[in-house]
Amino acid sequence: MFFQDGLTGSAWGDWALYTASPLRAFENELGVQDPVGFWDPAGFTSDGNVENFQRRRQTELKHGRVSMLATMGYITPEITGKLPGYLSPSMGIKFADVPNGLAAISKVPSAGWAQILAYGAFCELSQDQSPGTAASQGDFGFKVLTSSDPAEKQKKLSAELANGRLAMMAIIGMFFQDGLTGSAWGDWALYTASPLRAFENELGVQDPVGFWDPAGFTSDGNVENFQRRRQTELKHGRVSMLATMGYITPEITGKLPGYLSPSMGIKFADVPNGLAAISKVPSAGWAQILAYGAFCELSQDQSPGTAASQGDFGFKVLTSSDPAEKQKKLSAELANGRLAMMAIIGMFFQDGL
Prior knowledge:
- The protein is an all-alpha fold.
- It folds into two domains: 50-181, Chlorophyll a-b binding protein (Orthogonal Bundle), CATH 1.10.3460.10; 223-351, Chlorophyll a-b binding protein (Orthogonal Bundle), CATH 1.10.3460.
- Helix content is 46%, strand content 3%.
- The protein has seven helices and four strands, in the order H-H-E-E-H-H-H-E-E-H-H.
- The strands form two sheets. The chain has a two-stranded antiparallel sheet with strand order 1-2. Strands 3-4 form a two-stranded antiparallel ribbon.
- 11% of the residues are buried.
- Chlorophyll b 3 binds at residue 160.
- It holds the Pfam family Chloroa_b-bind.
- Chlorophyll b 1 binds at residues 65, 124.
């Protein structure tokens, strides 16, 4: 919300207000799809350079196509089984002898790898892929996605890009699961040595993701560090839920009547929503906000092992005499806090934009 408000002057991040964006050079390109629109969080296109955009699009298309083939290569043998006969008659290697996934790398003979590399080189070198050519836009004469209707052709090419993006995420996920568990499907039960098992029954471990720590913060299995991060996550989630509601509520219900600061003549109605409010709140108001935050932090012992360190400050709105119901409510609070952290950052971004 802060980011959106700062960039566009609106708490809701109205893209139409940000007319100076260099990204507008690419907002009608293939792959710009609802509900995200043109999405470039890393800022690769922030310079508006068309040549660089086209080179990256060419690379994205290739990676997406390779990833779609790789993903199907993982899935198909699991569903249909292996081909009959021999992969290498001279070496006595049957297709049935080659496992799925990463374990296959060591089983494929050198001649097989040479064939794979030769085919890749043929695809790369058999046509001119310099800027402006049909091949540079992914058209190698294989017309399965074409159509005589321009709108239908655009739809198919957009779908190919979207499916390629999904496949890039999918194949990386499969590699990760396969490397971690030895199974192309990432059977968690096979990875008995994982230090993450120390935390797989903690609050916030929810289906369908389970225990999710892509950054590997808990890979050392250190319980003390986990509890400190959980305490921080809970605080950030609660603050973000309040902040998100603080953005939304005035837009729906309107401002409070009367004065925010009678001495300075500032009415609640004078304070805009979002980031623009920062400059309107008087110093005494900021002092009150900081004083309340300090009170919440310092009024109770939050050292490891205390109730406060686990987020229990005696405000029992989420409690229950039924342990299962209490667990459900506390898990919901964590999940809602995580969503609110994403939401408030998105609102800042839109507001700033």
